[in-house]
């Protein structure tokens, strides 16, 4: 999905914000204090459920380079601690000891409080929650082939359903999130204007909805589907399925002579001659 320019830019901005608020023990303490204040405020106005294990104070998770689940945890933690993160960034903007600290915090604050950032934040979280089970399963050394194939199929189906039916729920969720925090929500019917220096070169006159729905939402999901289809081609999936009949697990429970014959005839015809 990072081949999509807005997605690549999103993760760069996310990394900047997370690195700033997690740069020191002092920042961690400020983040926790801001989160406690936010929790107390929400409880006071009955917008937060009270109970054992709920409303625990956490910290912003850094995303690792390879672990997909670490990216998901980073997105979840930012959503849960968004207000606290903004509070810490605003503190750094006014009280940072160097101009670079203040400047970086200001840039990060502007970035994460934009509608596009919030939109992609929720979009990527939803996509990663769909693919997380598959990613976790593939990282385990001992993996049942049939279970893995089932997860691949289920993941593709769920992402396709999100492509077909997920736009309105996602947009509603993002608008609610932004509305509660006073973040400007664009009129989706107006013309979309590209970033600095590109508006004059922009030939197509399309709307904000086209940008977010086609260029971001659909393009990102299609990229994810393409990646899954590339890594798990139909012929490879069939090979794995037929090969599972030779699995030693549970005393050859998956043994099927018809599948063995099909495996030999279709994938190894030169190795088995009558």
Describe this structure in words.
This protein has three domains: 1-113, no CATH class; 115-231, no CATH class; 233-274, no CATH class. The N and C termini lie far apart (48 Å). The protein is mostly helical and 274 residues long. Helix content is 68%, strand content 0%. 20% of the residues are buried. Helix 1 crosses helix 6 (115-139), helix 6 (115-139) runs parallel beside helix 9 (208-231) and helix 7 packs antiparallel against helix 9. It has helices at residues 5-21, 25-44, 68-80, 82-95, 99-112, 115-139, 145-165, 167-180, 208-231, 234-243, 249-252, 257-267.
Give a brief rundown of this model:
By secondary structure, this protein is mostly helical.
In quaternary terms, these chains amount to single chain
In sequence order, what are the helices and strands, one letter per element? Answer: HHHHHHHHHHHH
**Low-pLDDT stretches:** 48-57
Number of helices: 12
The description of the largest β-sheet is: none
For the secondary structure, the number of strands is 0
Task: Give the N-terminus to C-terminus distance in angstroms.
Answer: 48 Å
Number of structural units classed as domains: 3
């Amino acid at each position: 999905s990072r081949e999509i320019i807005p997605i690549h830019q999103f993760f760069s901005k996310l990394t900047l914000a997370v690195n700033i608020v997690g740069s020191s023990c002092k920042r961690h303490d400020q983040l926790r204090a801001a989160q406690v204040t936010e929790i107390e405020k929400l409880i006071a106005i009955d917008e937060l459920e009270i109970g054992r294990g709920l409303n625990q104070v956490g910290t912003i998770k850094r995303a690792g380079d390879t672990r997909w689940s670490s990216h998901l945890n980073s997105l979840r933690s930012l959503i849960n601690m968004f207000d606290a993160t903004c509070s810490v960034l605003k503190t750094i903007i006014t009280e940072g000891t160097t101009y670079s600290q203040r400047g970086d915090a200001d840039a990060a604050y502007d970035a994460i409080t934009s509608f596009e950032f919030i939109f992609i934040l929720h979009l990527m979280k939803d996509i990663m929650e769909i693919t997380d089970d598959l990613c976790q399963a593939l990282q385990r050394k001992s993996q049942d082939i049939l279970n893995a194939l089932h997860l691949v199929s289920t993941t593709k189906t769920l992402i396709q359903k999100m492509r077909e039916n997920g736009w309105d729920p996602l947009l509603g969720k993002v608008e609610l999130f932004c509305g509660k925090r006073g973040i400007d929500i664009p009129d989706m019917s107006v013309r979309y204007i590209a970033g600095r220096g590109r508006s004059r070169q922009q030939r197509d006159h399309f709307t904000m909805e086209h940008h977010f729905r086609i260029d971001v939402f659909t393009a990102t999901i299609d990229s994810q589907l393409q990646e899954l289809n590339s890594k798990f081609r139909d012929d490879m999936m069939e090979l794995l399925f037929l090969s599972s009949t030779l699995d030693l697990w549970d005393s050859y429970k998956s043994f099927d002579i018809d599948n063995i014959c099909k495996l030999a005839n279709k994938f190894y015809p030169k190795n088995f001659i009558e």
